[in-house]
# Entry
Amino acid sequence: MNTSGPDNHHRKAVRLFRVVELLRDNHLTVRELLSRYNRVDSPEERITLRTLQRALKDLVNVGQVEYNPLVRPPVYSVSYKLSPVEALVTHSALRLLFHHTPGYNAVYFRALDKLAHQLSQPLQSIALQSIEERRSLNNELGQALEVVAEGWAKRQPISFNYLKPTESGIDRGNVLEVYFVEISRSNLGLYVIGLERGKRGERRTFKLDRMRNVSLVGRPNDYAIPDTFDPRAYLSKAWGVVGSSGGQPVEVRLRFAKEAAYRILEGGYPNLSITSRLPDGGLEVCITVGTNNDNFPVELKSWVQSWGSRVEVLWPQDLREEWLEEARAVAALGGGINAP
# Structure
């Protein structure tokens, strides 16, 4: 019997193609793959375990399918070959997503799994283990993330209550048209930016961790994101995220000691310019930063405080006063301070 004729070659090609399609976006054991492959009405299209194993061997040999023996039971998946730079970018994106994961959500974690499976070993196994550790996170926040994502994609407003950040209590009945979702550079928190309906009727920023009872309202395509909305411009004066809405941007002047100067010179700080290099090796800098509704650079304050005695606030006066007041309070905890 001739098993190498055109028909047999065609059937084998179709079989290999179908195996690849079944493994696309899936990571299956050989028996799971066989079960899915044989879910057909026509008996002649079904294959045996031995035939499937031969097909998988051929696909692994040509680099189309990847075999992972490090999990039990072992799984097969479509092989995505990344260059070293692509692998590093994928790894970095995955680590960022891992660290800011707001809560458990099955869809979110499937996306993380897919991203992790783009990596080769041993990075893939490390990434998958890290993801597994996060599956015990708060489920409510994960559900909130899903609603926000759906509202943004469908242009459908969301309704939620909001935990006030500076006082007890809940701000109820917020309705938001989602324009953008941003990860804060300062705390890796996830923030939702959009137009608040009612109340203030202006563009506002909300931290996802503080949003409660999030649900969709209205209908899909209920609003349009204005062409004039540019998230880059909106966030350009933000040190983190929240400070980008509320008051007017303000210039903050700081003096850094020599011990901290090298960190500033390394760069990476938005809207920061060096105005003077001091004889002792220190620096004076100017930062243009957004403010809250009281025109106070609330987001920058915690960053300034993180430098301890290696920084001095020169301007504006209200930030300098709060910086000094906080420094005195901290010193008092350690045995008192002589106030100037």
The chain has a mean pLDDT of 81. The CA atoms of residues 68 and 196 lie 48 Å apart. The first helix runs from residue 6 to 23.
